[in-house]
Amino acid sequence: MKYDTNAPIYLQVVDAIKLDIINGKISPGEKLPSGRDLAVLYTINPNTSARVYTELEAQGICYTKRGMGTYATEDLKRIKACRDEMANETLNKFLVSLKQLGISKEEAIDMINQANDICIL
Amino acid sequence: MKLESINVTKKFPGKVAIENISMTLEPGHIYALLGPNGSGKTTWMKTVAGLIKATSGEVKFNDVAVNTDSRKKIAYMSTEPYFYDWMTVGDVGKYYQDFFDDFSMEKYDELLAGMNLDKKLKIKTLSSGMMAKLKIAVTMGRNADVYMLDEPLNGIDLIARDEVMRMVLTSASEDNIMIISSHLVEELEALVDRAIFIQDGHFAGMYDVEQLRVMESISLADKYREVYSGVREA
C-alpha cells in the first residue's frame, strides 16, 4: 500500500480495513490478522499496527476476544453506519474541491448526472 | 532493557567523527538513524557494537559498559561485505553458528526460504540485491537484543527492499531494539516509529515519527529537510 506520508499512517490503514469490511472482502465476524501479521502485511511499524486495532475498536468496527485475537464486528448496522460516514467524508472533500473551483452545488449535480458511469476494470 | 549512549565522542587523527552523542534507546521500537553521508552514523554504530572504542564517553547496555559480553547480545550488520567468495549461502550460516551462540540455523533457514535464497548458491555469484538479503538474513538469524543494520536498503531494487523490510518486521518484537541507518528517508517512513538525526557528528534530535504526522502533519522526509537544510516545506 502506498501511504500519504504527511498524514498519520495508522488512520490510512484503518480506512483500508474499514473499506474491506464495507465491501465484503472481510466478512462480519471474521478473524483479523494479529498485530504482528498486520505489520508485515501492510509493511508498517508494529506499534502503528497496534494503534490501528485500538482505533478500530474505539470506533466499534472490531473487537478483541481475550487471548483469541481481533475480529471484525458482526453488527451490520455499525458497518452500514461506517459506510455512510466514509461516504460523507468523500462527499465533503468533493464539495470542498468543487467550491475551490467555483462550481455551485446545482452545477455539480448536473455534472454528476452527465458524467459517464465509472467503469471498474 | 536499555541502550544508552552517554557523551560518546570518537576522534580520528585530524577529524572528530562523533561528539557528545547522548541518547537512550528502548526495546519495542524500530529506530531510523538518519543523516547525510559522513555525519557519523557508522562510527556510532561501530562504537555500540564494540568494534571501535570511544575516545570519551561510553555506551551502556543494561547499565553495563559495552564489552565482549554485550557483543553477544548486539548484532551489527556493516555496509562492507565480509564473506569469502568461495563460501556458499549455507556456509555463511555455519560460519555464523560457530561465531555466535545466539545464532539459530532454523531461523536463518526460514529467512532464506522467505526470500528464495538457495543455500547452495556461491557468494561470488550473488547479485547485489541477493547479497543485501543474505547479509540481513544472517544478522537476523541471531536472537539478539539489539539489531543494528547499516544502510540495509542501499543499492538494491524495489522487490529486494520490500523483502528486507518484511524481514525486519518479522524479527522486530517488544523485547528488542532495531536500529536502521539510511539516507533513503522515504523508504523508512512506515517502517520505523522513531527517528534519530545525526548532524556533523552531533545528536540533532529524536522524534516519534507517527506523532510528527499527527501533531504537525509532516512526514519524516519533511522533518529531515527541516533539520538539515532549515527549510520547512509549504
TrEMBL record, chain A:
This is GntR family transcriptional regulator. Residues 7-75 form the HTH gntR-type domain. SMART domains: HTH_GNTR. GO terms for molecular function: DNA binding; DNA-binding transcription factor activity. Keywords: DNA-binding, Transcription, Transcription regulation. It comes from Pseudobutyrivibrio ruminis. Pfam families: GntR.
Automatic annotation (TrEMBL), chain B:
GO terms for molecular function: ATP binding; ATP hydrolysis activity. CDD domains: ABC_DR_subfamily_A. It holds the Pfam family ABC_tran. Keywords: ATP-binding, Nucleotide-binding. Transmembrane segments: none annotated. Residues 3-225 form the ABC transporter domain. The keyword ATP-binding applies. The keyword Nucleotidyltransferase does not apply. InterPro entries: AAA+_ATPase (IPR003593), ABC_transporter-like_ATP-bd (IPR003439), ABC_transporter-like_CS (IPR017871), P-loop_NTPase (IPR027417). PROSITE patterns: ABC_TRANSPORTER_1, ABC_TRANSPORTER_2. This is ABC transporter ATP-binding protein.
